Amino acid sequence: MKIKEKIENHVAVLTLNGKMMGGPETQAVHDHIKSLIADGIKNVVIDLGDVKWMNSSGMGVLMASMTTLNNAEGKLALARVTEKVESLLIITQLIKVFTTFETVERAVSSFS
User: Looking at domain 2-81, what is its CATH homologous superfamily?
Assistant: First the structure.
């Protein structure tokens, strides 16, 4: 999985590409968020538009990332959630926990 970072108005946008199926590459998302917090960036949008599939390990990393940001008085938003990943969020009831947006732009502007 690839992680691309862009900073817009003090909000980090992480664009993920590939599958979130656990392992070191999925853990890298959480590590990336920890480094953003260390740099003083506490609002993060994760763009899931290019994530083909996610299992429970991927969901766990999203939950851990959100908890880490909340503990740092920051926020996490998900953008461009694919149909497959959205169905997983609905089945697990995590759709009620995460804030989701259709576009990255809307997610970024939600922090202002």
Answer: STAS domain (3.30.750.24)
